[in-house]
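Fold this complex.
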Amino acid sequence: MKSTPYLLSLPALLLFAGVVMIPLAMTVILTFHDWGQYKGIEPVFILKNWQEVFGDPYYAEMFGRTFRIALIVTVLAALFGAPEAYILNRMKSPWRGLFLLVILGPLLISVVARTLGWALLFGGNSGLVNKALMSAGLISSPIPFMFTETGMVVALVHVLMPYMVLAVWAALQRLDPQIENAAVALGAGPFTVLRRIVLPQAMPGILSGAVIVFALAASAFATPAIIGGRRLKVASTLAYDEFLNTLNWPLGAVIAVLLLLALVLIVVGANRLVERRYAQVFG
Amino acid sequence: MAFLALDTLTKHFGSHVAVDRLTLEVEKGEFVSLLGPSGCGKTTTLQMIAGFVEPTGGAIRLEGRDLLAVKPAKRGLGIVFQSYALFPHMTVAENVSFGLEMQGIGAPERTRRVGETLELVGLGQFTARFPRQLSGGQQQRVALARALVIRPQILLLDEPLSNLDAKLREEMQIELRQIQRTVGTTTILVTHDQGEAMALSDRIVVMNHGRAEQVGPPHETYERPATPFVASFLGKTNLLNGASVRPERIAFAPTGLAGAVKTRIFQGNHWLYQVDTADGLVTVIRQNTGGDMPEEGAAVHLSWGAP
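Structure:
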């Protein structure tokens, strides 16, 4: 029967509509409702919340910070993660498995637990990280980590690095095992082999890893909430505060919807770019 | 003095001896095949010449110079890998041009030589394609062009035809031989395919357990195998009264070794027989001349001349 495939996909479709589409639509509708300290939420259609978010530079600063942090985290994750994946890929049998576990192990631990660990390491002027850096003579006075973008970036890079390593590693596994030898035989030095042969083939992996890391960093909640607290907010913690502290749900909804829209645009755009660039070469 | 000389070349992997005191001299322009079953040390030998594997002992000399003292990137050898190892992110022309770029050759000459070499392998019109847009045979030609364009002193071929289907492999054998004759590059081929080795080489080195069992021209090696291993690896053979007798040398005759035909297989240009005799199973190959041949179960007599 022609309709069978559609009927078979109906349960999944209903679930998707029920848990994703409907709440999303309700959130979008919520952004147009009015809210007051004493009257609560009023189901009317106004643009006040949108005007407030677009008009007040405070919100622009929040979004600017969110995407600045996400960008720095992505670049750092690529800078550290790609070489890490390359080294991992060149390791011999027992070591490779061991170090893969070391890299992926943190994924098994809750983000909250890991970030709290960072908070303990950073903690104030007498934190372990600062003590170590000072006794190593690298810095003369403690670097403020808690409630700063620096601390947030450090913790986020750590939390999100495995995704970059995995994406790059997957790309490197598709490399012909003889390809580096082929380049060497043609007279290429080790640096040229990396730059001209390995890096271009790892690039699709780096870019797809970057998309994942960027999306997760921009929408991360637990890490900014613990490291940044109430003093240094990003879009996700701001939305949370509007919802649960100020109880201004419509304003929180605007922030959430804006974050979602921006992320979808960036991710889809980046994917389109990657696909167009590499479809011909790698397929 | 030989052009390329391997002198008691040895490679151990732990306690395993991959190549055992291999000594071989190759003349300039010669096409030599290293032939043997997998694990016989032929690929390890090739990789030591290329510089990807460090020998445990012995020496490799090219025109009298110690090749082991030269870094792999500076040896200037052309290599065609079994998997081709083409650069997938570069076009055909960029792949072939890469080695010239590494030699610091200017763009105009690069373009000229890349074009020339791609013409030589019959890929003149595919310069702008990416490797994955080519067939296996075409990729193979790109790999060959990429190795030849740098005008290597030695061309190393590592099972270059093993990924092609049978018909294409035969075509490429003929073409490879012609190209090698045209450019005159000294070539070392590693293969487990005795037909390929015999079709292409000036000389064959039959290897087993890391040692060269026999070195000689294909016809001579086939006709006068030095050891039972060479006889059995290089084509089919029968051991009769301790002597190796090729199946095509045995004829059905009125008298001789008596036996019964166990199986008979028709293979177009020849018949393949297995005959049960007092000396065990004997393989016989007879040309198909269109006439009647003994059928399965028939009683026959086999005769053969002195080997």
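The radius of gyration of chain B is 23 Å.
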